[in-house]
From TrEMBL:
<dbReference type="InterPro" id="IPR006620">
    <property type="entry name" value="Pro_4_hyd_alph"/>
</dbReference>
<keyword id="KW-0479">Metal-binding</keyword>
<dbReference type="GO" id="GO:0016705">
    <property type="term" value="F:oxidoreductase activity, acting on paired donors, with incorporation or reduction of molecular oxygen"/>
</dbReference>
<dbReference type="InterPro" id="IPR044862">
    <property type="entry name" value="Pro_4_hyd_alph_FE2OG_OXY"/>
</dbReference>
<dbReference type="InterPro" id="IPR045054">
    <property type="entry name" value="P4HA-like"/>
</dbReference>
<keyword id="KW-0223">Dioxygenase</keyword>
<keyword id="KW-0325">Glycoprotein</keyword>
<keyword id="KW-0256">Endoplasmic reticulum</keyword>
<dbReference type="GO" id="GO:0005506">
    <property type="term" value="F:iron ion binding"/>
</dbReference>
<dbReference type="InterPro" id="IPR011990">
    <property type="entry name" value="TPR-like_helical_dom_sf"/>
</dbReference>
<dbReference type="GO" id="GO:0051213">
    <property type="term" value="F:dioxygenase activity"/>
</dbReference>
<dbReference type="Pfam" id="PF13640">
    <property type="entry name" value="2OG-FeII_Oxy_3"/>
</dbReference>
<dbReference type="InterPro" id="IPR005123">
    <property type="entry name" value="Oxoglu/Fe-dep_dioxygenase_dom"/>
</dbReference>
<keyword id="KW-0408">Iron</keyword>
<keyword id="KW-0560">Oxidoreductase</keyword>
<feature type="domain" description="Fe2OG dioxygenase">
    <location>
        <begin position="215"/>
        <end position="314"/>
    </location>
</feature>
<dbReference type="GO" id="GO:0031418">
    <property type="term" value="F:L-ascorbic acid binding"/>
</dbReference>
Length: 323
């Protein structure tokens, strides 16, 4: 029954009969169809078929969890922790995860990884590695082993199913085209996938950078295969009112050839090592982009390079409406 209802609702939506699609799902949801509840929640989160309503999405997820939808349970944990549709609460999210872990091995794995972390009652780190200054202008530091091998593997695992070739919108045609600067595959770990392990690591990045977690864009994972690279570029966004002021790069693996990060303006080359993080300022004290922060990821010659990037803004952002 569920598959047929979901299929029919999507067909109605695609044909423009949005009201009929919503009515069909709502009727099924009210009759206890857990997949219909989940579909409605997703539509409320995405904000295309229905207006985005994070609070309503949370309510729908709660109903789905009560019936026993595993994916809804993990999504509810993520949204509870990052405050989508309600106030953020690490304590409440952790309690939900513990409940989910009773029957869900994925939730149990996340819980076990959290138990290895040095974090406080709010998921913030209680210790950090000492930064090694690599450059003073621009300010570039390295945090050796900011992430453990298990944490790196978890981040890569979360992102792997979502990886797609890097693309940009062609300003002439308005069509998506291959990114001419970054030739990797990438995926952003948005609010619905920001499980408690990812959330704790984002808090660690925030602490290392001296910023609030709300200033960071969703953690983006990049995979570079042989020949792929990130050509010289600045991370700042032209004309942005809420500018990117810092970048954190975390190398998720090692054992590949090539892929060094270079800052040509200061003659600095950083050789990737799994778990190490590079933090650098992207703007001058005036707030203008710093040309010396121009950097590149050299081509990978052999193997695959995995990297996690968090771009940090001057002010907190809404991860649902980034611009």
């Amino acid at each position: 029954m569920s598959d047929a209802v979901i299929t029919r609702a999507n067909q109605l939506s695609a044909s423009g009969a949005t009201a009929d699609a919503i009515a069909l799902l709502t009727k099924a949801a009210d009759a206890g169809d857990v997949d219909a509840l989940m579909q409605l929640a997703v539509w409320r989160l995405v904000g295309k078929t229905m207006p985005r309503d994070l609070s309503e999405a949370r309510a729908l997820l709660r109903r789905a969890v009560a019936i026993g939808h595993v994916d809804a349970a993990l999504m509810e944990v993520a949204l509870t922790a990052n405050g989508s549709g309600g106030p953020p609460s690490w304590t409440a999210a952790l309690s939900l995860l513990r409940t989910a872990a009773v029957d869900d091995p994925i939730a149990m794995e996340q819980l076990q990884l959290l138990d290895t972390m040095a974090i406080d009652a709010d998921g913030a780190p209680t210790q950090l590695p000492s930064p090694e200054v690599l450059s003073t202008a621009p300010h570039i530091v390295r945090f050796a082993r900011l992430f453990t091998q298990q944490e790196c593997a978890h981040i890569a695992g979360v992102a792997a199913p979502m990886l797609e070739p890097a693309r940009i919108i062609d300003p002439q045609t308005g069509q998506w085209v291959a990114n001419p600067i970054r030739t990797s595959d990438d995926a952003a770990i948005g609010p619905t996938n920001e499980n408690l392990v990812v959330r704790a690591l984002n808090q660690r990045i925030a602490a290392a950078s001296g910023t609030s977690i709300g200033q960071g864009e969703p953690l983006t994972v990049l995979r570079y295969r042989p020949g792929q690279q990130y050509r010289p570029h600045l991370d700042t966004i032209q004309g942005a009112q809420n500018q990117r002021i810092k970048t954190v790069l975390v190398y998720l693996n090692e054992g590949f050839d090539g892929g060094e990060t270079v800052f040509p303006g200061v003659n600095l080359t950083v050789t990737p090592r799994g778990g190490d993080a590079i933090l650098f300022d992207t703007v001058l004290t005036t707030g203008a982009p710093d040309p010396a922060a121009r950097h590149a990821g050299l081509p990978v010659r052999q193997g695959a390079k995995w990297l996690a990037t968090r771009w940090i803004r001057a002010e907190p952002i809404d991860p649902w409406t980034i611009s």
